[in-house]
Specification:
Blueprint lengths: L2 H9 L5 H12 L32 E4 L20 H4 L14 H6 L1 H6 L4 E4 L3 E3 L2 E2 L4 E2 L6 E7 L6 H13 L3 E6 L9 E2 L15 E2 L5 E2 L23 E2 L31 H4 L13 H18 L3 E4 L7 H17 L6 E4 L6 H4 L10 E2 L2 H12 L5 H8 L15 E2 L9 H8 L5 H17 L3 E5 L25 H4 L20 H15 L2 H4 L1 E7 L5 E7 L5 E8 L5 E6 L6 E6 L5 E3 L5 E6 L3 E10 L9 E3 L3 E3 L2 E11 L5 E9 L5 E6 L4 E6 L8 E10 L4 E3 L3 E4 L4 E6 L5 E2 L3 E8 L7 E7 L5 E6 L5 E5 L10 E10 L2 E4 L3 E5 L8 E5 L21 E3 L4 E8 L2 E9 L6 E2 L10 E5 L2 E8 L4 E5 L8 E5 L2 H4 L15 E3 L4 E8 L2 E9 L6 E2 L10 E5 L2 E8 L4 E4 L1
Parallel strand pairs: 1-2, 1-16, 2-7, 7-12, 12-13, 13-14, 15-16, 35-42
Antiparallel strand pairs: 3-6, 4-5, 8-11, 9-10, 17-18, 18-19, 19-24, 20-23, 21-22, 21-24, 25-27, 26-27, 27-30, 28-29, 28-31, 31-32, 31-33, 34-36, 36-39, 37-38, 37-40, 40-41, 40-42, 43-46, 44-45, 45-49, 46-47, 46-48, 49-50, 51-54, 52-53, 53-57, 54-55, 54-56, 57-58
Helix pairs in contact: 8-9, 11-14, 13-14, 14-16
Keywords: Hydrolase, Signal
Protein name: Alpha-amylase family glycosyl hydrolase
InterPro entries: A-amylase/branching_C, GH, GH13_cat_dom, Glyco_hydro_b, Ig-like_fold, Ig_E-set, X25_BaPul-like
């Protein structure tokens, strides 16, 4: 670390995370949120602070899967389990099995890793795994099926070899990060009722204490009074262990089946995303303090005994908030006691919504999350050449992460990973038919954006060698050593004629060289790593996006301009300094440029590239602090648990604005400092009662040391917002109706009631639920109502300081009548032969109803571009449906790569969507008890040729017609001739078997990948 950065951090009053935590205890006594650190010595004077730079804002990560990097020791390939691949998991010819890489290979190739400018190695989980899970027909090479949390997987090496790798990295000034899991273990637990069962909600079957009393676990989360449980009576499914695996897991407490949720498989939405098993993986009961304590002890040992420098935390969004609020501070406290003041943790929150991902660093007290929103924005900019103004919008949302002890500068940024796929793959898919030179240029542009913008850049191993692949997961996990996997040998590599048949450790590869160059430049100019990131310019459409980076101490401005178009572009970029020379330090452009009197810097940027200019001196000192005033604080539009506080600052120089809050009678407490306009924070008030009175103020610190403080503005904590999740607006219902709702912010004390109105009549009670995070009841009244009857539902809730009612949902009893016509009306209509765009009655845009599944479809061919559309019914705009099936809702965006696209509209849900043939699976099989009758070698065979469906290119519906004898059959949809991805009843991933009683004769199976529904008839 450079001395300037270290000095800046040590002098900043908010740099010690643990110090803030201690201060928060004081603050919490006056009911301010725990992350607002108050100053008990002085409640009158305002704070004028520098924007926080936590210990980790200048790392260059190399994310590597040990099994797929380098095979340094062939003697451990089978993990000591013998030669049978279905026992050892080792098969170098299959992408779903161990391929042979190990820790010895990492140590042997550490020069190669460091040559990229890497400062931190991030390892995928390396603990001992269940070598093979037969149900998945694959192996634990990836590390996410852990059975022993105290031992390195024998396929990868030994604990001593890990220690040797860490020691060698430390001797080179590098760090080593572990990928850890707290959400689940390997699939060891079964159920008396059968394996991998469909999820059962808490409302359908609540948890019960060992004494048989029902309770809501959220009422006891993080409490030492968590009820005792019994395996035979406490869960919807009775957990059982195979005799041979009763003591398989280490530490021993993990073999207690009552420390798991035991509710069946998740579908990754709603309540079950917290409580369900991931494809059968045993989901830990993280609300139970025994699990919290156990996980803390496990990971403390890897810090204390091995010197691990930090953790990437898997599946963070699938674990309850209370776990993180305990786990994060405890890990940091322990690491600090071990002398690791720069210990750093970041979580995987697979979501692109900043208002949601930021909750884990604000509300849940974690340091950082992986910047999935950045990955999406970077792909759109560099690979798809979208309007550069979308980057302006993206970076403007960075203030969601700003609070008193963290901000966006800590987030690890990335371009692709082992789950979603590689940046090279995205570029190839987004630019079909483009030349290798263009694809390499776009790849380099994406890396330039990542290295020059805020955050800690992450290189996914192999990206530096131009790896691609057709998708994510196993298709994005190629070996850097010579591969024997047929699917990998077919991959194209960017920037080289090499293939996966040979080793790929080429330090001369253009992408390896580019990444090394970017790392060296940002090391030489540290403001490009952790200087203030200020938006400067965005063109209309593809073109130049520009921002500046400024260090708070040396006050030298760097202007970064990136061009995502395929032609040279020129722009006048605003800066902090007028009539000043700027020197080019990166890119192909004029060596010198001078700003105009009003501070505009004229830059010309070649196509698909970047340039960087450095000011010849520091920004002139302000002579006086600018005026500052607060806008009226208000509930944040995307997170009702936060209040948006915005400051208007006069002047155009470099400023830092500190926001403070207080409750009635309390002292002022800093809640965050922002160093880029627009100056704002999103203050987390979810812990406070609705109606609590608050005051805010802002203090601006200029670059001459002057400060000015705004007048206070009053606000009140908003009441929670109730939203009905089911049923969908305008849908048809038959029989019992499941009603569900969520509250924002969520609290375990909430009790939600539901009411109905029939045919416009009075509201009457249906029932109540106090089981968070999703509240639901079942209404049986529609069973007795005539078809076509209109029924409205609403949710209500009362509590301290609030009495709220949701927006109503209207449904109709019985099958909803189909409209006379459905038109997909949008900005592309003229392209398909309509007289004009947004033509609600155009015959060429009319969809066709498929009576087999009552879905309307239309397939058209479009040029590449960005479009918008809606569904218009009966040839008018009187009834239309937009995003999420909302009546009269917002336009739906379509980013189309060019070619055919199929639109589909379902009148039961009113959802209209666009699907592509390129998004379809490679194969779909009806796998079940009918396979032998179809001519397969046996039943439940996903790879059998006779069980494969064929896709109709006009509708993108998969079909198989067959003749079967009378009987009752069970089956699922198995994708890509494997059980890795399958869908059962209701279209649920790995869901229950679909049952079908057949009278004998012809039958047609149909599968729609948009809904994952497999039907027979």
């Amino acid at each position: 670390m450079n001395t300037r950065t270290r000095r800046q951090r040590l002098n900043n009053p908010l740099t010690t995370w643990l110090g803030l935590l201690a201060a928060a205890v004081v603050a919490s006594t006056s009911v301010l949120p725990a992350h607002a650190a108050s100053d008990p010595k002085d409640s009158g004077s305002s704070s004028a602070l520098h924007s926080l730079r936590a210990p980790v804002t200048d790392e260059n990560f190399y994310f590597v899967m040990a099994d797929r990097f380098s095979n340094g020791d062939t003697s451990n390939d089978d993990g000591g389990l013998g030669s049978d691949p279905m026992v050892s998991g080792f098969n170098p010819t299959k992408k779903g099995f161990y391929n042979g890489g190990d820790l010895a290979g990492l140590l042997d190739k550490i020069d190669y890793i460091q040559g990229l400018g890497t400062t931190s190695i991030w390892l995928t989980p390396s603990f001992k795994n269940k070598a093979v899970q037969p149900e998945d027909n694959s192996a634990g090479y990836h590390g996410y099926w852990i059975t022993d949390f105290t031992q390195i997987d024998p396929h990868l090496g030994t604990n001593d070899e890990l220690k040797a790798l860490i020691d060698e990295a430390h001797s080179r000034g590098m760090k080593v990060y572990f990928d850890i899991i707290t959400n689940h273990t390997a699939d060891v637990i079964g159920y008396e009722e059968g394996a991998r069962k469909t999820y059962v909600s808490k409302d359908a079957e609540p948890y019960k204490t060992a004494a048989g009393e029902a309770f809501d676990d959220r009422d006891f989360a993080a409490s030492k009074d968590f009820p005792e449980l019994d395996a035979t009576t406490s869960f919807p499914y009775v957990p059982v262990l195979d005799k041979a695996e009763e003591n398989l897991k280490v530490p021993a407490w993990l073999n207690d089946s009552t420390l798991y949720h035991n509710r069946g498989d998740t579908t990754f939405v709603g309540e079950n995303s917290y409580y369900g098993d991931f494809f059968g993986l045993d989901d830990l009961f993280t609300e139970n303090p025994k699990v919290v304590d156990g996980m803390e002890e496990i990971y403390k040992s890897w810090i204390g005994d091995f010197g691990v420098d930090g953790f990437r935390i898997d599946t963070m969004k699938h674990v309850n908030n209370e776990f993180w609020q305990e786990f994060g501070p405890e890990m940091l406290s322990y690491a600090k006691a071990q002398g690791k003041d720069e210990f750093f943790m970041f979580g995987e929150v697979f979501d692109t919504t900043k208002s949601f991902t930021s909750q884990f660093t604000t509300r849940n007290q974690m340091q950082a999350v992986l910047d999935f929103p950045f990955q999406d924005a970077a792909r759109n900019f560099a690979s798809k050449s979208q309007d550069t103004r979308s980057l302006e919008t993206f970076f403007a949302g960075d203030d969601w992460y700003t609070d008193a002890d963290s901000n966006v500068y800590q987030l690890p940024t990335f371009l692709g990973n082992h789950d979603m796929g590689r940046i090279g793959s995205f570029i190839a898919a987004d630019n079909p038919g483009s030349a290798d030179t263009e694809q390499v240029a776009r790849d380099q542009l994406a890396h330039e954006l990542m290295y020059f913008s805020r955050g800690n850049p992450v290189i996914y191993y192999g990206d530096e060698q131009g790896f691609t692949g057709p998708g994510g997961d196993q298709d994005a996990r190629q070996t850097l050593f010579a591969s024997q996997v047929p699917e990998y040998l077919d991959d194209d590599l960017l920037g080289t004629d090499a293939t996966h048949a040979a080793d790929n450790f080429n330090a001369g590869h253009p992408l390896y060289a580019k990444i090394g160059q970017l790392a060296a430049l940002t090391k030489e100019h540290p403001a490009l790593r952790d200087g203030a990131h200020q938006h400067r310019y965005a063109s209309e459409g593809p073109g130049i996006y520009a921002f500046s980076r400024t260090g708070s101490e040396d006050q030298r401005e760097y202007v970064v301009a990136l061009n995502n178009s395929e032609q040279p572009q020129t722009a006048e970029v605003p800066t902090y300094i007028g009539k000043r020379s700027y020197t080019r330090i990166y890119g192909d452009a004029a060596e010198e440029a001078k700003t105009s009197a009003d501070g505009k810097l004229t830059v010309t940027v070649p196509p698909l590239s970047a340039v960087v200019y450095q000011s010849s001196g520091r920004i002139p000192h302000s002579k006086a602090a600018p005026a500052v005033s607060l806008q009226e604080p208000a509930a944040a539009p995307a997170d009702n648990g936060r209040i948006k506080v915005t400051a208007d600052v006069g002047g155009t120089s470099f400023y830092e604005v500190t926001f403070e809050a207080r409750t009635a009678g309390g002292g002022w407490a800093p809640i965050g400092t922002d160093d880029t306009a627009p100056y704002q924070v999103f203050h987390d008030v979810a812990a406070l009662d609705a109606g609590t009175a608050l005051e805010y103020r802002a203090t601006v610190l200029d670059n001459g040391g002057h400060r000015a403080t705004s007048q206070p503005r009053a606000a009140a904590v908003p009441a929670p917002v109730l939203t009905i999740q089911t049923p969908l607006e305008g849908s048809s219902v038959e029989g019992a109706v499941e009603l569900s709702a969520t509250a924002d912010p969520e609290k375990s004390s909430h009790v939600v009631s539901f009411e109905r109105s029939v045919a416009g009549g009075e509201w009457t009670a249906v029932g109540s639920d106090d089981s968070s995070p999703v509240y639901s009841v079942t209404d049986v009244a529609p069973r007795d109502l005539a078809d076509g009857t209109e029924v409205r539902y609403r949710a209500t809730m009362a509590g301290p300081g609030f009495n709220v009612v949701s927006e109503p949902r209207t449904v109709f009893v019985g099958e909803a009548p189909q409209p006379g016509s459905v038109t997909v009306a949008g900005s592309f209509n003229s392209q398909i032969g309509c007289p004009r765009d947004w033509d609600e009655a155009c015959p060429e845009a009319s969809m066709v109803l498929d009576p087999a599944d009552n879905v309307w479809r239309l397939t058209v061919t479009l040029d590449p571009g960005q479009y918008e559309y809606k569904a218009a019914l009966n040839g008018t705009w009187d009834v239309s449906y937009g995003a999420d099936g909302v009546l009269g809702g917002s336009n739906i965006a379509l980013d189309h790569p060019g070619g055919t696209v199929t639109f589909r509209y379902d009148n039961r849900t009113h959802i209209v969507s666009a699907v592509y043939a390129s998004q379809q699976p490679q194969a779909v099989a009806v796998a079940g008890t009918l396979n032998a009758l179809l001519g397969c070698d046996g039943d439940w065979d996903p790879a059998c040729d006779q069980a494969q469906l064929t896709m109709d290119p006009d509708t993108l519906v998969w079909k198989l017609s067959a003749t079967l004898p009378a009987g009752t059959y069970e089956f699922k949809a198995a994708l890509d001739r494997d059980w890795k991805e399958s869908y059962g009843a209701g279209g649920s991933a790995t869901g229950g078997n679909i049952s079908y009683t057949h009278d004998g004769g012809a039958v047609t199976f149909r599968y729609d990948d948009a809904t994952h529904l497999l039907t027979a008839g």
